[in-house]
Each structure stands twice: as C-alpha cells, then as structure tokens.
Amino acid sequence: MRANSGNDLEEHKRRVVRRRGIPPVHDGVPRVHARRTRKLIARLRPDLRTGSLALEPGGSVGAEAPTGAPPLRVSARLKAQAGASLCESLLALGLAAVFLANAAVAVVDPAAFTELVSASPVGDIVSGGWVAPAIALNDLCIGVALLAAHRVRWLRPPVLAWSGLWLMVVTLIKLTALA
What we know:
Layout: H1 5-20, H2 31-44, E1 54-55, E2 61-62, H3 76-108, H4 110-119, H5 122-125, H6 131-151, H7 156-178
Antiparallel strand pairs: 1-2
C-alpha cells in the first residue's frame, strides 16, 4: 500500500462530491442529511428555489453557495412534483371538508338520504333505517382518513381510491334517482 493512499482517497471523495453536486459535510452532518435537506427546501420553500442555493456551514440556507461547495440545483421535475403535491394536498383537504360536511348533514337530516336511496333502483336492494347512519359513518371515516392522509403520505393512495369509489356510487345513485 502506498503511503499517500489516504490522500488519494480524500481526493477521490472530493471529486465525487463535486461531480454529484453534494455539499461537503459541515459540522459532522452526513451527506445523506444534506440531500434530504435540499429536497425539503425545494419542496417547502418555493421562494428559495433558485439555481445557486446551498447550505451554509451552520446549517442555515443562504442565497449563495459557500466557497468550495457546489450549488444546489433544483430540477424542473422536482419543481413539478412539489406543485403536484400541493395540488394533491388541496384536493384531499377539500374532499375531506365535503365528506365531513356530508356526514354532519346525514346525522342532522337522515330523511334526505333515505329518500334519495329509496328513489333509486339501488333502494330495492338496500333499504331500511340503517342507510343514513351507514352513510354518516362512512363519510365521517373518509373525511378523517383524508385529513390523516394529509400528514401520512403512504395513506393517501388508498384513501383517495376509497373516496373516489364512494363518489362514483353516490353519483350512480343520484343519476338513477333522477330517472
């Protein structure tokens, strides 16, 4: 082994850091945290999404890259994902409000729901006094789940699928009740 192999390894690490655009370690913070911080900054702070952002040694965000550190680059794909995530969050919160309001109406005025279901051909299959409480419970569960999915990301796809399926059933009942 050569005597300067440690220096070669350090030089190799510096080249990799420069090539990948990873800021060097500051104050013992590993590079993986720096990457997560860049993604978080890009997603949560749209006003800081410029091509020359970098982490300063103290861990704060600065407008210019510190000397020797490569600038943070925010790709168009990441910007589009952040915008889509915002739209998806607004959709989920709006749906949660609709479902929670519908659950409250089902508790206050259950006759409207039972009349709608009985006027539909589905009413021949589903009848009884349990329809309005079931609708209220389902809408309440969907509304709460949509609020929870706002924070718990892995919960979002199944809850959106559940709410979409329920909305299709309600649409079918309403359209068949009109005929």
